[in-house]
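Quarterly update from the structural biology core.
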Amino acid sequence: MSSRNPERKQRLVGQDSHLSRIFLLLLFVVSAQGVTPNPEACLVSSSVNGSSISCQPPAQIPHSLPADTIFLAVEFFNLTQLPADFLQGVPNLQELHLSSNRLEDLSPKFLLPVPQLKVLDLTRNSLTRLPPGLFRISAALCTLVLKGNQLKFLEASWLHGLKALRHLDLSENNLHSLPPGLLENFPDLLTLDLSNNYLQTLPPDLLRGPLNLERLHLEGNRLRVLGEGLLAPQPKLRYLFLNDNRLASVAAGAFRGLQKLDMLDLSNNLLTTVPTGLWTSLGKAARNLKDGFDISSNPWICDQNLADLYRWLVANKDKMFFRNHTRCSGPEALKGQRLLAVAESH
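Predicted structure, tokenized:
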């Protein structure tokens, strides 16, 4: 059989890379009425729920907004600052997109006029911190996107006030570490994206707040070890991305309890072997790993220490991505051979 379709895997990896855009499409059915062709004016459209406003250069940013505004996008303006009262007069705002500017900081009072805000997208700005108290009345906020900023560290207090958070994207920052207790107040969190940072270790209690986490993105960091208890609090986890790290060690019980896992990506790490029992809980349930797994581009040493993995691979080979790129790096007699072929010969 040929390898599973890599394009399908790519779609799975990118499903929530533009979460805020998905909300845009789902929340609003915009009528054509009210759209102006003037290139210096923002695009204004109306729905039964309220007004939606989208501003990009060369449009001029409006000084005032319709009182019924529920969607606002001000993007690609290279703004470094926004006035504290920028959102005054739009108490029903539900989505705010400020991506691709150069915002360096926000006023602690910035979100006070919009207590119903559900989506805040700050992608690709220059934020190095968040002001304490920014979210103190943002109990309705469910999606926070901070992708592509310049955050080098986080403080748990920055997120205080968020009570309904379901999607948190901190990818493509400069994070080297995370504080303990960061997620302890987010029981409803479904998606956590920490990909493409500089994380070498993770706090043992990182996931002890969320109760329903479904997607965890840790790819593109510098993680070396996956310990015993990190994932234990997450029995509902479905997608786990650990690819493109420096993982050389995975604890035998690292995946224990992940009975609903649909996809696992361990590709492009430094794994030469794995402990007996690692795969025990994976691949058995009817839905388990139904979307596949990837262990390619690791320097596997194909000896008797992989016997447990060999048996598991043969039983689950129909779920395996990139078989041709999953090869032995040793011993010398097996160097370059496909790992699955070696497994099937045992």
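Residues 16-36 have pLDDT under 50 and may be disordered.
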